[in-house]
Amino acid sequence: MIADLDTLLTALYVELTDRIIPSPGPARRGPGRPATVTDAELVCLALAQVLLRYDGERHWLRAAPARVGHLFPRLPGQSEYNGRLRAAAPLMEAALRWLADHTPGSAELLRLMDATPVPCGQSVVTARRSDLFGYAGYGYCASHSRWYWGSKLMLIVTCDGTVTGFGLANPKLAGEREEARQMLRCQPANRPPRGTAIVADKGFAGDGFESSWPARSWT
């Protein structure tokens, strides 16, 4: 497991350093000391945290020296780690898409698509004061027969569970069909190869919905 993880992290680090990060051009350096941990190292650390199943950042940073310290001798503090990860969202997305493209299941012309609620708060005060206001809204989860305040996550995955497409929508503003249309129309990286069969539940069934997709050759 560790040997396989080492190989994966090394390959991702090389890809980030050689291709993904330089593509937008040289980064603009602000005032203060340069970061001791590079953006490529930061993304690899975040990936290792997920693969090793550490939910909390504090717990992960305490365990990281023993788990991946041979690869990353320099580790950021918790506040720096959290803040930089938030700012590195586009880079994280690029890394996740690179991983998906290099997973064997992504070569198969079959995908599964479904949506799941992501509750973000329980109280009215949270709904009014949260920074997620506008991104989150009230929606109904039929699977659990309850209302929630949050977002709805749409996923397109391979049969082995590798995520190849994703989108997050306000459930009050967009239903599952509209979210799927927007996810595929506005984000070309989410689109599977032409000829791919996408399996979904009956909520997506219908000729009108299928004909509105950007790639008509999908089934």
Q: What's the overall average pLDDT, rounded?
A: 85
Annotation field: number of helices: 8
Report Rg.
Answer: 20 Å
The arrangement of helices and strands along the chain is HHHHHEHEEEHEH
Strand content: 15-25%
Helicity, in percent? Answer: 40-55%
**Unreliable parts:** none
Ends apart, CA distance between termini? 37 Å
Shape: globular
Strand runs, count: 5
- The structure class reads alpha+beta
Walk me through this protein's architecture.
A hairpin with a 5-residue loop joins β3 and β4. The protein is built from 8 helices and 5 strands, in the order αααααβαβββαβα. 41% of the residues lie in helices and 18% in strands. It is globular. The model has no long low-confidence stretch (mean pLDDT 85).
Describe how the helices and strands are arranged:
Elements: H1 2-20, H2 39-51, H3 57-68, H4 78-87, H5 89-101, E1 110-121, H6 124-129, E2 137-141, E3 146-157, E4 163-169, H7 176-186, E5 197-199, H8 207-211
Parallel strand pairs: 1-5
Antiparallel strand pairs: 1-3, 2-3, 3-4
Helix pairs in contact: 1-2
